[in-house]
Predict the 3D structure of the following.
Amino acid sequence: MELKSILLPGMEAKRPLVISGPCSAETEEQVMETARQIASKGISIFRAGIWKPRTKPGGFEGVGSEGLPWLKRVKEETGMYVSTEVATQKHVYEALKYGIDVLWIGARTTANPFAVQEIADALAGTDIPVLVKNPVNPDLELWIGAIERLFNAGIRKLGVIHRGFSSYDKKLYRNLPQWHIPIELRRRLPELPMICDPSHIGGKRELIAPISQQAMDLNFDGLIIESHCCPDCAWSDKEQQITPDVLDYVLNLLVIRDTNQTTENLVELRKQIDELDEQLLETLSKRMRISQEIGTYKKEHNIQILQTSRYDEILGKRITMAEQLGISGEFMKTMLEAIHEESVRVQLKIVNQ
Ligand code: PEP
Ligand code: MN
């Protein structure tokens, strides 16, 4: 999949790429106040939900198109790029009309191929970056399917957002991270930028920092974090929103490990493992050859194959030695048993020839 960078003009290519803003645009004042504070922290992409898919009717479903001029104002007054969620063709047309810079597809929408196709068709011919959230259910193929629909419509500035997967049993997380799924996505489509959404994974303010750190350690490219000028007054997702000051604090705490360095070290370490495995195999093969010679000797001298006392002695000595070397005795026992079993099999074959 040949993609183009999702970075917009003037944006620095650094990890993490941060997108932040309120869950929802509520009022023009709330949007502008939050945006001013976020811009002062050096964030380059502002987020705000204009159309909010809610699990149950009756909740705040977003201000709708009325909020789009507010985002336009954010762009003009703070210089940040602006992003919002689209779930229908109408959303796409409206967002494009108001100059929204980045779009994302929400988790409930990604789960619906008809909706994704409709959005992809509406986007055909544009060059706007689109971020695809994982579907609510842990289905990697469905996630990749959505990316392919956009790609087939000609969208090349693609990225993904990992926001966790819903489950019946909610304990620590609002949405289970199931990290192996985005990790597998990275393996399958390594060129796709991956952004983590610790706000929707954790569902709680105090989980934002540890989840963000984990995402950085897993080599994610960016973070999308909900922030609000007054989190406790938020009309949606208030438990997981933080102030721009806290956002800045969380971002400064992150330890960003150099990916190249880590990879190089890893390559070095793996090389050593490969070499040691080769030595282990050579040693094992030498041991088997000697075992065969012993088998021949036993046959010529009519000696029993299994010498229990000798085996007990070997087992005891090697386990003690292993423990002295910091290897678990239990593991040593399992390994020796496997080797011994193979030796006995080989010797039996020789004796019975
Ligand atoms: C959101 O980003 O506010 C949102 C609704 O997210 P999701 O689609 O991940 O639930
Ligand atoms: Mn939200």
